[in-house]
Each structure stands twice: as C-alpha cells, then as structure tokens.
Automatic annotation (TrEMBL):
Residues 125-219 form the ATPase AAA-type core domain. CDD domains: RecA-like_protease. It comes from uncultured bacterium. InterPro entries: AAA_ATPase_domain (IPR050168), ATPase_AAA_core (IPR003959), P-loop_NTPase (IPR027417). It comes from the Bacteria. One of its GO terms (molecular function) is ATP hydrolysis activity. PANTHER family: AAA-FAMILY ATPASE, ATP-DEPENDENT ZINC METALLOPROTEASE FTSH. This is ATPase central protein. SUPFAM superfamilies: P-loop containing nucleoside triphosphate hydrolases. It holds the Pfam family AAA.
Length: 220
C-alpha cells in the first residue's frame, strides 16, 4: 500500500485504542519501521495518536459522575473541579520543556499499546520551579490536551486542627478519584509535604505526610 493511501486510511481512524483497527494500525507502523521507513512510520503515528487524542477528548465530554468530597465540619469542598472551558492551555515553552509535556501526552494516548508491551504511561508527575512559573497552568494544559476532567486539591480545607480529621479528609479525596479518571493537581504541595524530621512538629503533620505518600504510591 502506497504512502498516500496509508495516510488517508490513518486519518479516517477515529475509534478508541481498544478497537482492533487501532491495533492493526499500530502493527502497520511497526512494519514500516522494520522496513526502515522511519519518516512514514513517524508521520502515521502522529496522525493516529492525534485522532485518538481527539476521540478521547470527545469521550470526556460525556457526563462523568463525580461526588465532590467535603470537609465534614465546615462543609467546604476538599477539591475544586474546573470546567474544561476555563482551563488555561495556551503555553509558550522552551523546546526542552514542551517536549517533556508532549511525551506525557503521547504516553497517555498510547497507554493501551504500552500495556500490551508490559509498560505503563506515567501517572504521577512532579512539576517544580519557583512560584509563578506556570506549574499549575501546565497541569491544566495536560488535562486539556488529553481530555480528562481537572481537579485541584484544596489543602487549606484538608488540613484541620482536629486530631485525625486531616487524614480522613485526604482519604476522602483519593476514595472519590480511584474510579474517576482525571488530572488531580496537588497544588502548593509543600503546604503539607514538609520534612518528617521537623523537631517542632507534634506528630500530626508527619502522619499526614506519611499517609499522603502512601496514597500516592497506591494510586493507579
């Protein structure tokens, strides 16, 4: 099959990654690579994954049930859900940083193909740099591009002066998202992720950090 026909065929693929036609398409790309047709293979891969990303965004617009967890004592939401239309996603980045974001997005689009090969797309990402550099905006951009709902944790409502309540609030958040695909932003994570060796801490903050780390480790 000539390159022009292959390109037209791949542009018509709009099914989900689980469909047989998508698996066949990935096999075609692999065969093109084996023939040393690298440019053709790369072009077909970009077309396929762009279509799959678009399909995923369309699917994400169907209503997903999310029960917002609340602080029981104050009745304030523990997370904030930001509508897709309000997400900031137009970013001007250096080529190096842009490529890192694109790699995360491509991994998500190709997650089923990765799983078929015994690999997993990254699910936990740390964005670090001085305040105001665009970390939160970067998280919103990821949610926009891969088509998932965006949630931001409100640490000021999670942490409570009452013993044990902060831990319960944390667990509420992770219990709600375990079956709800989303981008969860732990904004201002250093609010609780302080050193566990802090001599001035009475113990509650250390327990919060430990529980948070365990919840992150178990999250998949």
């Amino acid at each position: 099959m000539d390159t022009s026909t292959l390109t037209r065929l791949f542009r018509s693929i709009k099914w989900s990654p689980e469909d047989d036609i998508v698996k066949i398409a990935y096999n075609i790309i692999s065969r093109e690579k084996e023939k040393w047709h690298k440019n053709v293979a790369d072009s077909l891969l970009r077309i396929l994954e762009a279509n799959l990303a678009k399909k995923n965004r369309e699917n994400s617009m169907s209503p997903l049930v999310f029960n917002t967890p609340f602080n029981t004592r104050s009745n304030i939401p523990l997370v904030t859900k930001i509508d897709r239309e309000a997400l900031r996603h137009d970013m001007i980045l250096s080529q190096e940083i842009e490529e890192k974001f694109l790699r995360i997005e491509r991994e998500f689009v190709a997650r089923d193909r990765l799983l078929m090969n015994g690999l997993k797309p990254r699910q936990k990402i740390m964005l670090y740099w001085p305040p105001g550099c665009g970390k939160s905006m970067g998280a919103e951009r990821l949610a926009w591009d891969i088509g998932l709902p965006f949630l931001r944790v409100n640490f000021e409502t999670i942490v409570s002066s009452f013993l044990g309540e902060s831990l319960a609030n944390l667990r509420k958040v992770f219990d709600q998202i375990k079956d709800y695909p989303c981008v969860l932003l732990l904004d201002e994570f250093d609010f609780i992720a302080k050193s566990r060796d802090n001599k001035q801490d009475v113990g509650e903050m250390s327990r919060i950090v430990n529980v948070m780390l365990n919840l992150l480790e178990d999250y998949s």
